[in-house]
Design a protein that fits this description.
By secondary structure, the chain is α+β, with helices and mostly antiparallel strands. It has 2 domains: about 260 residues, FAD/NAD(P)-binding domain; about 130 residues, Translation factors (Elongation Factor Tu (Ef-tu), domain 3). The protein has 13 helices and 18 strands. Strands 1, 2, 6, 7, 8, 9 and 18 form a 7-stranded mixed beta sheet that branches. A 6-stranded antiparallel barrel has the order 11-14-13-12-15-16. Helix 1 packs parallel to helix 12 and helix 10 packs across helix 11. It is elongated and about 85 Å long. About 45% of the residues are buried. The structure holds flavin-adenine dinucleotide (FAD). Flavin-adenine dinucleotide binds next to helix 1, helix 2, strand 7 and helix 12.
Length: about 400
Amino acid sequence: MERKDIIVIGGGAAALSFSVMAGSSRRVTVLERGARVGKKLLATGNGRCNLTGVGICAEDYNIPERVGGFLKRFPPEAAVRFFNSLGLETRVIGGRVYPYSECASSVSDALIAAAADVGAEFLTRREVREVRRTEDGFVVSVAVLGERGEEKGRESYLARNVVLATGSYATTGKDSLALFAALGHRVRPFAPSLTPLVTDRASVKGLNGVRVKCVASLGGIRAEGEILFRDYGLSGIAALDLSALVARGKVRAGEEISLDLAPERTEEELAEHFEKFSYYPASRALKGMFHSRLAERIEERAGARADARTLARVIKRYTLTLSGTADASAAQVMSGGLAMAQFDDDLCSRQVPGAYAIGEALDVDGICGGANLQWAWMSAFAAAQALKKGKMLLHDRAGTAPYSCLA
Ligand SMILES: Cc1cc2nc3c(=O)[nH]c(=O)nc-3n(C[C@H](O)[C@H](O)[C@H](O)COP(=O)(O)OP(=O)(O)OC[C@H]3O[C@@H](n4cnc5c(N)ncnc54)[C@H](O)[C@@H]3O)c2cc1C
């Protein structure tokens, strides 16, 4: 059995940044199921990779009380400095940070090159099937996959530390949390987040493809940004952000979604506006403000010969009924994962000393705007710092680690 120092399971954003941050003091081997590492990164931010955001705060995540400490240690500015130090220039567009090239491949290329510089090893088409704790360390059992994903052989490694970085099955992929569940970790089942909202069909009928800048409210939470009407419900940033509430079990099907279709105007201002044009049919004034199909729906809701006040009220409160969310194939992240309570502030397992988890595999999910990649970087930073400082040796001295080979 080949011996390795640190094995990282999964080769996504968290694993790549971890490999760089761990530096050359510890040898990192990344085992990735796919044909290449960093594949999901290429799809982020519509191919532009929104790698972090100005002003990301703990409240942007499902468990602010835990995420706050990680943000303090590695805030968005540190993420920008980290990427700049790899030679990657960045630009800020509307508070979101992108690579200067606005090409996601620039981010993965920079990480892969820097990881190679510090001697990280990437083994692709390696699917980890089992992680076992033994007296001598972690035995990692791997299936070697062929081009069509067929199993071609088996390998086993003995590692001093393992880092689970298997992400989630948002968009594509497979759930590998079972690898750590088998070691005694609790898992909150994954639910699709940052995904379109499914609503009653009547409220969106005929509106497929219409976009509007609005404020959307659900369960007392407001989300500002674009809404894109679909024939099954709502997409766009504001809808995606609200889907996190559904994923986290904070709201349920049947609740009301309310759209303020003209957030920069008060109801009174709108009523005055329509009053001024009351000699026109309402449809004409509405079409002067909204996409013609949306204008028709507003007029329909307000009723025949609606007065200016009623039109204003419908515009400020265009309501729909929530049915649920789209499935994982449309989601940017999954809410759920390994319970954070079982990991310390270095993301070292309290159950199994020497085992770490980073990125989306943990039960941390954020809203749109770079919060999820920011979590990948800051969780990688926490684990890398601990492993660089030889945290396992401290565990050994405390007598909590059962291995003999670690000192
Ligand atoms: C379409 C899309 C757009 C997005 N855009 C943004 C954005 O602009 N900004 C932002 O902040 N976030 C964005 N996200 C979310 C962000 O991409 C994820 O939060 C982030 O990639 C998570 O990183 P990770 O390394 O934890 O997991 P992943 O990137 O999911 O990587 C996990 C890796 O582990 C591998 N793996 C899994 N199981 C095994 C196994 N058993 N053995 C070996 N390998 C295994 C997988 O093949 C995968 O390569 C987007 C997501 C999607 C899907």
